[in-house]
Amino acid sequence: MNDRAVERQRVESELRLALEGRQFILHYQPKINLRTGVITGVEVLLRWQHPAWGMVMPDKFIPIAEDCGLIVPIGRWVLRDACTQAKRWVDAGLPLSSIAVNISALELRQKGFLEGVRTILSDTGLETHRLQLEITEGVLMHNAEASTVILQALKDMGVQLAVDDFGTGYSSLNYLTRLPLDILKIDRSFVHEIESSPHNGAIANAVIGLGNSLHLRVVAEGVETEGQLAFLMERHCEEGQGYLFSRPVTSETFAGLLSTGIPATIGSWEEARSEGTAYRSPRAIQPARCKGGSASPR
Ligand code: G
Ligand code: G
Ligand code: MN
Question: Which of 51-55, 168-172, 292-296 has the lowest mean pLDDT?
């Protein structure tokens, strides 16, 4: 076996111990209404705290978990933990409208998936409309026929569906009209250099227009600079996420962000505010927080 194969096998055997060893944790990255600066939701991102290796990021282990099938039990743990946490925040009076969980192809195709989602929502008591599932464009495209039934069933339950990494699939857009989708996430590769690369700007612009005309909400991923924010605001992209607002953070830190809001020190918001068109401090408009509950119940 070559080095890479040995490495993969090591990761796989460690992964088998990780769930039982409670080595996984979830980090949370806010999604922001780009005009008002208010947190509209959150994406859940899995982290693996290995006892010897330290924090392992998903790109190092999710592909391996997908190949060996472990993504199914891991994904189920993610969904349950995320819904449990979201329900706690909602019950604590924190202004969280939805929580988004990434779903792999194998999870979606797996027989008990729909029933699993239903059970987790019912066990945790999280309202169905607060759950979003993010599925990459590639998965939707290549499995359009098989996915239709399951996506429609999720939609009928009230779960929201997002196309992740939109624009990277290089293929037909047919599936967009055939599948019951709610949200388009512009891949961060297009947001990157959105101002300096005419191509990226044109693609981002087209995706925003496409989303609007198909009545899909558009979320820009990977917003890192003020210039990117200004570009997106000008084109009326409704929502965004990225390092400019917040990196993925722990549940405690995210609960804090929910109660205080994203700091309004961003230039585009200050400009818009001085024109009277935009950013209002979340503190001023969020409902009173925490009816006696703790803001970070973990
Ligand atoms: O945080 P970032 O490096 O954290 O995530 C890298 C990639 O891993 C992203 O494409 C993201 O969609 C994926 N990912 C993160 N968490 C999960 C998860 O819980 N399940 C699945 N299937 N993918 C995830
Ligand atoms: O494929 P998906 O959209 O699920 O990927 C989410 C990934 O994007 C995570 O790895 C997350 O850490 C990363 N991410 C979030 N915001 C930013 C950002 O502003 N810049 C970059 N480069 N990565 C980001
Ligand atoms: Mn995602």
Answer: 292-296
Contact 58, 52 (CB under 8 A): no
C-alpha–C-alpha distance, residues 256 and 69, integer Å: 36
Q: Which amino acid residue places its CA nearest to atom 1 of ligand 2?
A: 165
Ligand nearest to the CA of 132: 3
Quote the radius of gyration of the chain (alpha carbons, Å): 19
pTM, 2 dp: 0.90
Which of 159, 225, 217, 210 shows the shortest CA–CA distance to 183? 217
The pick from 45, 101, 134, 137 for probing ligand 1's pocket by mutation, whose C-beta has the most ligand atoms within 8 angstroms, reads: 45
Determine the Cα–Cα distance for residues 216 and 180; give it in Å rounded to an integer: 10
- For residue 285, give the nearest of 297, 271, 273 by alpha carbon: 273
What's phi and psi for 184, nearest 5 deg? -115, 125
- φ, ψ for residue 15 (rounded to 5)? -60, -35
Please classify residue 25 by burial: count the beta carbons closer than 10 Å to its beta carbon, then call 0-12 exposed, 13-18 middle and 19+ buried.
Answer: middle
Question: Hey, what amino acid is at 180?
Answer: P
pLDDT digits (tens, 9 = 90+) for 84-136: 999 999 999 999 999 999 999 999 999 899 999 999 999 999 999 999 999 99
